[in-house]
Amino acid sequence: MRDNGFEPNIIEYLKNPPNVNELKVICKILDLSAIDIIRTSEKEYKQSNISMNDTDDVIIEKIVRHPRLLERPIVIMGNNGIIGRPPENVLKLF
């Protein structure tokens, strides 16, 4: 991003976890369901008993309770956004 002249605003999600409304906005901008922004490799994933059949609202509540579940990094520029894994994905925003 910096190579393209943009200085990111980094939000430390563990110090300032997103709330329900912020997560809903993130899903809308990314055009993804809540299940698509979950890190399934985290131990909290297994502990949370998340199911593919859970609604977005249920999954978002679980992310709020366990912010480590949130896939990262998430890069948002205006009304566009992308999950930055792999890092090359971010280039799609330019």
TrEMBL record:
Gene3D superfamilies: Glutaredoxin
Organism the protein comes from: marine metagenome
Protein name per UniProt: Arsenate reductase (Glutaredoxin)
TM regions (residue ranges): none
InterPro entries (alphabetical): Arsenate_reductase-like (IPR006660), Thioredoxin-like_sf (IPR036249)
Pfam family, one: ArsC
